[in-house]
Amino acid sequence: MTVSMGFFRKIEQWLIDEQSGEILFLPFQADGNAYKSKVLLVGSQPEPLIQIGNADIQFLADALVDRHLFQDVFQEEISEASREYRGALNFASWMKENLKQQVVFSSLNCLNVEDELLKQLKKSKDPLYLRGFEIFKEVIDELEPELLIIQGAPTFKQFIERFKEHLADYAEEDLLQSVQVLEQKGSIGQLKLNNGKKAQILVCRSMGAFGKTGKSFGEFKSILEGIFQ
User: Fold this and answer.
1) How far, in Å, CA of 64 to CA of 228, rounded?
2) In what helix (H) or strand (E) does residue 41 lie, and over which residues does it extend?
């Protein structure tokens, strides 16, 4: 799938660091038209770690809306990715096969660099690190998903720290609960988007626990079935 010129320009702004001119961010990964997806799965930082030159930016943009192409091109990088990323791929396959829903992946911080460098940039509150959070908000405001799934305790904690002021229709006590408890609850509130719309928020354990079939995610899958069936 080839992205339109208008969408390519937005993706280009998300991918490239203005100061260095290098591709340093990974804003999202979709499996088709990202605007048609209702579900956005949120992790803490992008995977896999990829390094690609600016000459290939159009190709990368096309791969971001073609999961099969992305997996073919970045096989080696994906083989080194975490259990969480592999579990996310399995979860996306389950959603597509069982609920006919395309899942877009994104991250609270879209900066795609090695862990050690990320820690240094985070500690110094480097503008590059802070830009990663801005890109995430720009992505969800652009794609307007109906449902955000926040995976993992560290991601949920950081999500509340960064975006609590954008939440609506939530109970304060829910923000203090464990992700294991919230996984059984269903929607815990909504995130306000720039256009006035709101995205429902679900919370679950890291997709590293999903495995191949999501056997331990039975209640969570039932909640999703109740939403989309």
Assistant:
1) 25
2) strand 39-43
Residue 109 sits in which domain range?
Answer: 5-228
pLDDT digits (tens, 9 = 90+) for 112-170: 999 999 999 999 999 999 999 999 999 999 999 999 999 999 999 999 999 999 999 99
SS3 (DSSP) at 201: strand
Spatial CB neighbours of 139, under 8 Å, sequence gap ≥ 6: 14, 27, 28, 106, 110
pLDDT (0 to 100) of residue 64: 97
Give the strand pairing for 103-107 and 198-204: unpaired
Contact criterion met (CB below 8 Å) for 146 and 39: yes
Single-letter residue type at 46: P
Q: Structurally, how many domains does the chain consist of?
A: 1
In angstroms, rounded to a whole number, what is the distance separating the alpha carbons of residues 25 and 129? 10
Burial code of 175-184, b = ≥16 C-beta within 10 A, e = fewer? bebebeebbe
Contacts of 46 (CB under 8 A, 6+ apart): 25, 26, 106, 107, 110, 111, 112
DSSP assignment of 126-143, as one string?
A: -HHHHHHHHHHHHHHHHH
**Domain containing residue 148: CATH number:** 3.40.470
